[in-house]
Structures are given as structure tokens and as C-alpha cells.
TrEMBL record:
<dbReference type="InterPro" id="IPR057620">
    <property type="entry name" value="POT1A/B-like_OB"/>
</dbReference>
<dbReference type="Pfam" id="PF02765">
    <property type="entry name" value="POT1"/>
</dbReference>
<dbReference type="GO" id="GO:0000783">
    <property type="term" value="C:nuclear telomere cap complex"/>
</dbReference>
<protein>
    <recommendedName>
        <fullName>Protection of telomeres protein 1</fullName>
    </recommendedName>
</protein>
<dbReference type="Pfam" id="PF16686">
    <property type="entry name" value="POT1PC"/>
</dbReference>
<keyword id="KW-0158">Chromosome</keyword>
<dbReference type="GO" id="GO:0010521">
    <property type="term" value="F:telomerase inhibitor activity"/>
</dbReference>
<feature type="region of interest" description="Disordered">
    <location>
        <begin position="330"/>
        <end position="371"/>
    </location>
</feature>
<dbReference type="InterPro" id="IPR032042">
    <property type="entry name" value="POT1PC"/>
</dbReference>
<keyword id="KW-0779">Telomere</keyword>
<dbReference type="InterPro" id="IPR012340">
    <property type="entry name" value="NA-bd_OB-fold"/>
</dbReference>
<keyword id="KW-0238">DNA-binding</keyword>
<dbReference type="GO" id="GO:0032210">
    <property type="term" value="P:regulation of telomere maintenance via telomerase"/>
</dbReference>
<dbReference type="GO" id="GO:0016233">
    <property type="term" value="P:telomere capping"/>
</dbReference>
<dbReference type="InterPro" id="IPR011564">
    <property type="entry name" value="Telomer_end-bd_POT1/Cdc13"/>
</dbReference>
<comment type="similarity">
    <text>Belongs to the telombin family.</text>
</comment>
<dbReference type="InterPro" id="IPR028389">
    <property type="entry name" value="POT1"/>
</dbReference>
Length: 648
């Protein structure tokens, strides 16, 4: 055994954000330490103590430039654990404060200065202060956590650590291994709780906020707020994010916790102390959801131990959580392997082809505003390959996916949570039986819903909450209610589209006032040449010889669906919208009063409005998710869905 420095003098080594290299257990000869029981600690003394952690606040910024940490220590000598010794430690850097990870950790302190604060003893750093922290779990290794590589640790120290571990294991207030943890599935609005989880992705939103995307193997029963990732640089564990996307929950970390949050990295396990399940209040200028959402927030301050604590991957509280995580990942992997071997009629992800184009507009942004159309000069153009890609994604095969492999148990949890909501029923209706019928050239199924599917009836329903968090591209089967649609003016449901260059505009004023001469068909003077193609031909010098194609009428409608687990905006256009509207062909609705009335009757039945005495019917839909840019937001489109209603 060798003599080494035990940290009695001030350290000249400065530590940054990186942890110091592993320590080597060492001993000392010719020098022993006496340790004071906490019941015998007196003010205005300096003592050495062995104790267990009953409570701690993770490091936080003090009012000055230092970091501060609050700890309450207990040991077997105390008759009442509420009489533990409160300690207040300050340091220039977080890394040189006691590295406490959990209640029940064992701590050894040399040269603890005890002062009087408000008539109670309080521990502070004395000259030559040194500290070792040990995992308090029985059976864990006796490896100390310390900011210094130099410390003393002999057989007597190991014996004291093991004795305290045995005591902690028999003390319910300290034995966190036996505590039942609150999971995301247990979280309820207004609750504060400690969350044990794994970070999958993270991003710095601004100087006052950091976003964590975390999971714990469960899904909240409360519909919750998702962060707008546009403009954020997301650091993520990509392989894990793909497998567990349907389980990710956004946690917003504010103010004095930002520096601590930025010390973590994707893949780390963390204990988020005093996490608030807050009622989400959107900004005044934001679109308000029809249903109430919650958000997971770490507020400023350190009340009730609020903060972030790193966890080792073998922490006892992670055992059940990691088992649940393992099942989710195995389920995801199995499903991916199975779907890759099935044909088009099986459940599986859509095979998306890559294109050379780097940018495009979403379907919802294809149409210019009225002012631009009236001028006849401003237009939106979408690159040919990208528009073709969107069509290929939607049209490819008949496969449709059940969602993000959400387990039956967690689907049940979602429905249980939704059943607590007041007002309209928010529980996704149970699947019914199907009867076959014929409509136009396709066989269609009839069900007591406002819409039915033209296929894929063997696929189970996916809640919107799971759709929103799933990877793209994918196909789903939904049951939801229509709470809004756009445009609200039925005459604007149809637009002009060029199939040659994918150019789309609203119907110009020159065509709005004309009268149809033959019901059910376009009048001969209603054709409208594509200005984009004409400009291209002019620029190529072929303006006189080339034939300018006429634009065709197509539907472009956006629906907002709500199933009680979330809101989903979906687009309908082109042939998929025609199928939805029972093969009613698109036309100039400013001219065709009869068709306009039919569409108006349909939409009135699907979305009666808040003042109506009639409840909105449930809609059964096939939904396709896709992106037009690799890093762009997910978009959604209806396909293989038709109305089961009759016009009034």
C-alpha cells in the first residue's frame, strides 16, 4: 500500500466538461481518519462523515458566478430521518461538486465545516474539503465517484460503504430500487414527477430553452405538444430514433437548466426531476387544437429538487424500463423484417424512391392566393420529378401500415386516457363488420361511418397520436372526426392543374363568370392554356410552333381530423379526391351549381359545426405520410377512401 495525496490541499487541476479519467483504488499507511456520527455533529466544528443521501438538488447556478448544490445527509445514528444534516456546496464548475446521482447514494466527506444557519447546523466546504460518492445499491461495485484522481480508500472504507448499503436497503425512504416509478403512460395533467428516460434526440431551441426527445418504453395517455423542428439543428441517435419514433416525447427544458441539459448527448440515460405535465397554452397567433394538449416542461428554479441527473445504464430504476424498451425495439425490428418480405397486399412501409430534386412545395402550398391569381402573373411551380415522386408514394402498391407497431397494451392505455376527456367522445370507435357494395367501377365497403375504405380492411386502426410520431413515408388506417376543412368556400375546392409541368393555380376571374352551356361537361370556351408551359416555350424559341397544353380541373382540399389523441391535417387532391367524393368529377364550381350543392351537402354532413345539434360522423380513412424534402416536415394525404353519405 502506498501513501498518496487525499485531496487535503487545494487542487491546482481544473476540470472542464469532460469527466476525469477512471480512478484507481488506493490505500494509505500511517494515517487514519475518524468519522463522526451525524447525531454527534456540532456547529462550529470540522468533521469527517460517512452518510447516505436522503435528498439532493442537482447543481444549479447561484446568484453569483458559482454553481450550488443542496444535499441532506442521514445515517443510522439518527432517530428521525427528518433530522438529517443539510449541506450547501458551492463550486466554480459543476464537475467538482459531489457527483450524486440518486437518493440512497453513499457519500464520504473529509473536512466538512459545520456552521449555524437559522438555528440549525449546516454543512459547507472547509479547507481541504474532499468528497467521494458511491452507488448505494446492494451488489454494485465499490468504485467511488470523485472530481479528483487522488484520494485514499482502504479496506476499512469499503466496509463502511457496505454497512451503509445494507442500511439503505432496509430503509424505505432511501431504497429507490423498490420505488414504483412514474412512467410517461402514468403522467396526468398538472402532475409533477421524476422521469427516468433515455435521450434520443436533442436540440438547442434558443438561449433559454433546450429540447429533449426522450422515451421510456411507454406512451402518454394524454395528447401532448410536439415541438416545431423547423429551423432546429437536431442531434440524434439516428438508429434508435428510427425504431422508437412512435414513443418519443418532447421535453422542454428552460432557463437555468439549459447549461446542464447541453452537457448530455443522445443515448444518455437521465433522471428529470420535478418534470411538470403542464396544460399547453398556445400563443395567441397560433392555430388552436380542438382538443386540449399537455406539454412536458422543466421550469426554471430548483424547487423540489428540479433538475437533470445523469444515470448509469445499469441503474436499478432502469431495469423495468429497459425491459419495456427492449420489447419495443424487438417488435419494431421484427415488423420491419416481416414487412420487407411481404407483397403489396401486406402491411409494410412504403418503398420510397430517391429523386435528384432537392426542393419542392407541399401539396397544401400548391395554390396561389387570390390576389396573385387575379393579377395573372404570380404562380407556384413544382419540379416535375418531385410531383411525380409524391404521386408514386401515394399510388405505390396497396400496402397500408398499422402505424408505429404500437402494442395492444399501449393502444389500450391511449383509449383509457381518452375516456377521461369531457365533452365529445374522444375514444377511437371499435372496428365494425363490413358489407360489400358496388359504386362506380370499384367495389366499395359500406360501414356506419361517414366514409369507408376501398380496400385494406384487414389493417388495424392507428391512433393519430402514433401517426404524428411515425417515420415517413408510411401508410395508415384511421378513424377520426372532421373538425375543419379548407378552403371553407366550396367553389374553391377545384383548381386548374397542368399535367405537363405540374403548375397549379386557382380558377382565374376570367373563368368564374362564364355560364355552362351543357350540364356535366366543360363548355368549349372554358379551356385555359398553361402559362408556365407557354413561358417555357417562349424562352426556348418555340412559341409559334409548339402547342400549349390546357390546364385541367382537379380537387385540392385540406381536412383537419381529430380522434381524441391528436389533430392531423391531411390533403386530398387529384384522383384520390375524386374517389373520396364518390367519383364526382372536378369542374369549374363557379359554373356548376348542381355539383357545388352536392359538395356542400357532403361537407355539411361531415363537419356540422359547433352550433349544430348533429354530431359529426366518424370517418374511416387510409392516410399516406410523406415528405417532399428529406429534412422537411411530414405531410399526409388521403387515398383509397370514399364517402358513405348521400347528398341531401
Amino acid at each position: 500500500m502506498s501513501r498518496i495525496n487525499d485531496g487535503a490541499g487545494p487542487s491546482t487541476r481544473r476540470h472542464g466538461n469532460n469527466r476525469p479519467p477512471p480512478k484507481t483504488r488506493t490505500g494509505v499507511t500511517g494515517r487514519t481518519y475518524g468519522y463522526t456520527k451525524l447525531c454527534d455533529v456540532k456547529v462550529r466544528t470540522t468533521v469527517n462523515v460517512y452518510a447516505a443521501v436522503k435528498f439532493f438538488k442537482p447543481p444549479f447556478r447561484s446568484r453569483g458566478t458559482d454553481y450550488c448544490m443542496v444535499v441532506r445527509l442521514v445515517d443510522p445514528s439518527l432517530d428521525n430521518l427528518d433530522d438529517g444534516l443539510k449541506c450547501l456546496f458551492f463550486a466554480k464548475e459543476q464537475s467538482i461538486l459531489p457527483q450524486i446521482h440518486s437518493v440512497g447514494d453513499i457519500i464520504r466527506i473529509h473536512r466538512l465545516k459545520v456552521d449555524n444557519f437559522r438555528d440549525e447546523p449546516q454543512g459547507n466546504k472547509g479547507p481541504g474539503f474532499s468528497c467521494l460518492v458511491f452507488d448505494g445499491r446492494p451488489g454494485a461495485t465499490v468504485d467511488p465517484r470523485s472530481d479528483s484522481q487522488n484520494f485514499t480508500f482502504g479496506p476499512e472504507d469499503e466496509e463502511k460503504v457496505l454497512e451503509l448499503r445494507d442500511w439503505v436497503a432496509l430503509t424505505p425512504e432511501l431504497n429507490v430500487s423498490n420505488c414504483e416509478l412514474t412512467t410517461l403512460a402514468d403522467a396526468e395533467e398538472g402532475q409533477y414527477f421524476d422521469l427516468f428516460c433515455q435521450i434520443v434526440s436533442m436540440a438547442k431551441v434558443d438561449a433559454t430553452c433546450v429540447l429533449f426527445q426522450v422515451w421510456d418504453g411507454t406512451i402518454p395517455t394524454e395528447p401532448f405538444r410536439k415541438a416545431d423542428l423547423e429551423g432546429l439543428t437536431l442531434d440524434r441517435k439516428a438508429d434508435l430514433a428510427q425504431k422508437v419514433k412512435g414513443h418519443l416525447v418532447d421535453v422542454f427544458i428552460f432557463d437555468d437548466h439549459v447549461p446542464t441539459a447541453l452537457r448530455f448527448k443522445p443515448g444518455d440515460f437521465v433522471r428529470i426531476c420535478n418534470l411538470h405535465v403542464a396544460k399547453y397554452k398556445p400563443p395567441d397567433d397560433a392555430v388552436r387544437p380542438s382538443g386540449q394538449l399537455v406539454e412536458f416542461v422543466v421550469h426554471k428554479g430548483t424547487s423540489f429538487g428540479r433538475g437533470l441527473t445523469p444515470l448509469s445504464s445499469d441503474h436499478p430504476n432502469l431495469m423495468d424500463m429497459k425491459n419495456a424498451m427492449k420489447q419495443v425495439i424487438e417488435s419494431s425490428t421484427t415488423a420491419e423484417e416481416a414487412t420487407s418480405e411481404q407483397d403489396d397486399d401486406a402491411c409494410g412501409p412504403v418503398k420510397r424512391k430517391k429523386t435528384g430534386e432537392s426542393s419542392a412545395e407541399s401539396v397544401g402550398s400548391l395554390v396561389e392566393g387570390d390576389s396573385n391569381v387575379q393579377q395573372g402573373t404570380s404562380m407556384v411551380f413544382v419540379g416535375d420529378s418531385n410531383m411525380e415522386e409524391i404521386d408514386k408514394i401515394v399510388q405505390q402498391g396497396d400496402s397500408i401500415v398499422q402505424g408505429n407497431n404500437v402494442s395492444k397494451e399501449r393502444d389500450s392505455n391511449l383509449q383509457k386516457g381518452n375516456s377521461k376527456k369531457k365533452g365529445k367522445s374522444s375514444t377511437v370507435p371499435e372496428e365494425g363488420s363490413f358489407a360489400s357494395s358496388s359504386n362506380s367501377t370499384n367495389r366499395r365497403c359500406l360501414l356506419e361511418t361517414g366514409t369507408v375504405l376501398t380496400g385494406h380492411h384487414h389493417i388495424k386502426v392507428t391512433p393519430i397520436h402514433a401517426v404524428l410520431t411515425h417515420s415517413t413515408p408510411f401508410k395508415f388506417r384511421l378513424k377520426a372526426q372532421l373538425v375543419d376543412y379548407s378552403p371553407r368556400d366550396i367553389t374553391e375546392f377545384c383548381n386548374l392543374f397542368c399535367y405537363t409541368c405540374n403548375y397549379c393555380i386557382k380558377i382565374p376571374p376570367s373563368l368564374k363568370q362564364k355560364v355552362c352551356h351543357k350540364e356535366g361537361s366543360e363548355p368549349s370556351d372554358s379551356s385555359f392554356p398553361c402559362l408556365q408551359c407557354k413561358r417555357r416555350q417562349s424562352s426556348d424559341g418555340n412559341a409559334e410552333s409548339a402547342v400549349v397544353p390546357n390546364m385541367k380541373y382537379i380537387y385540392i382540399v385540406k381536412l383537419t381530423l381529430d380522434d381524441g389523441t391528436g389533430l392531423l391535417e391531411v390533403h386530398m387532391w387529384k384522383e384520390h379526391a375524386e374517389v373520396f367524393f364518390k367519383d364526382l368529377p372536378p369542374c369549374n364550381l363557379y359554373q356548376h351549381q348542381e355539383d357545388r350543392q352536392v359538395l356542400s351537402d357532403y361537407m355539411q354532413q361531415l363537419c356540422p359545426g359547433a352550433g349544430s345539434q348533429t354530431a359529426a360522423p366518424w370517418l374511416e380513412c387510409c392516410i399516406m405520410s410523406y415528405t417532399v424534402k428529406d429534412s422537411g416536415p411530414a405531410l399526409y394525404q388521403i387515398f383509397d377512401t370514399t364517402l358513405a353519405l348521400e347528398a341531401a
